[in-house]
Specification:
The complex is a heterodimer of chains A (225) and B (79). With 225 residues, chain A is mainly α. Chain A is 64% helix and 3% strand. Chain B is globular, with a radius of gyration of 15 Å. Classes of the chains: A mainly alpha (225), B mainly alpha (79). At the A-B interface, helix 2, helix 4, helix 5, helix 6 and helix 7 of A face helix 1, helix 2 and helix 5 of B.
């Protein structure tokens, strides 16, 4: 994964293991010991881990009605890919959650990404989109109050004016056209993290440009000064 | 849903969260801890600063957390 350069919080209170029981910590330790061993004990542990990952992948795919006959294939692929990821990252497990919870997230990620990409398979992802800003007008401004209409107009102008082409493509696809970021990353040959960084930078630019125009933006709303 | 609500939601989606936020990689690294803290009723947002803002801005990561919480919840059900 590329190193992140996004401005991020520096304070992370730790630890949080207070929520884990001694039994849960011991169980995690057993998983690590068995997976780090050799011979038949390790083989059994790996087989058990794959079963657990497959259960998680099936759970994720069952939540997605858009996935049809290939559901079981995707679940098996997801379990295999997650197994490789977990075994390759055992050293990164910090013991701040149950081992099984830590492992599950890899299976859920694999299954979720595969499902999103499968759902968009064969669908066009507009990468040179000039309709996004128009969509802002069509969707929202017709019945909006005057101050909102002003902000929408300014937002549309700044999307066209202050963003790089790459930032505009990513912002419009993800926030206006509902393209899943994992689908976009596949089409653009990038990663979720890299594209989100692009989106984050685009949003920051837009916020700065709008503030310069006199709009006061906060999490819950905005005011024109 | 009011028209004003629609417009606000659209603007919020485009502009994303205002606060400092984690990256996708950091979010994934913290996902299991955050999920267990949430389920235990602890103050997960305080324990993992920047997580909430990222989840508000990144639908894919928010979906991943939703899936993990749902799976853990299901496993806690009796029977």
């Amino acid at each position: 994964m590329p190193l992140a350069t996004m401005e991020t919080p520096t304070e992370t209170p730790r630890p949080c293991r207070a929520v884990l029981s001694h039994a849960a910590v011991a169980e995690s330790r057993r998983w690590l010991d068995r997976l780090s061993s050799t011979g038949s004990e390790r083989e059994r542990a790996v087989a058990e881990l794959r079963t657990l990952l497959l259960r998680a992948a099936r759970f994720e795919l069952a939540r997605r009605p858009e996935i049809g006959a290939e559901r079981e294939d995707l679940a098996q692929q997801s379990a295999n890919d997650a197994l490789l990821a977990v075994l390759g990252k055992l050293g990164e497990f910090r013991g701040e959650s149950r081992f099984t919870t830590w492992a599950y997230k890899f299976a859920l990620l694999e299954a979720g990404v595969k499902a999103r990409r499968r759902a968009w398979h064969g669908r066009e992802v507009p990468l040179e989109d000039t309709t996004g800003p128009l969509l802002i007008d069509a969707r929202a401004s017709a019945h909006a109050p005057a101050e909102t209409t002003d902000l929408l107009a300014a937002l549309r102008d700044e999307i066209n004016g202050c963003l790089s082409e790459r930032q505009r493509v990513v912002l419009i696809a993800v926030t206006l056209n509902d393209v899943p970021i994992d689908v976009l990353s596949e089409r653009l040959g990038s990663t979720r993290g890299a594209l989100y960084k692009t989106l984050h930078d685009a949003r920051r630019k837009l916020r700065a440009a709008l503030a310069e125009r006199g709009f006061e933006l906060d999490l819950n709303g905005w005011e024109e000064s | 849903m009011t028209k004003r609500g629609e417009a606000e939601r659209l603007i919020s989606r485009v502009l994303g969260p205002a606060g400092r936020e984690l990256t996708c990689e950091q979010c994934f690294a913290e996902l299991d801890r955050y999920a267990e803290l949430s389920l235990a009723g602890a103050d997960a947002d305080r324990q993992v600063p920047g997580m909430r803002a990222h989840l508000e801005g990144c639908p894919a990561c928010a979906e991943d957390l939703g899936s993990l919480l749902a799976l853990l919840n299901e496993q806690q059900q009796p029977g």
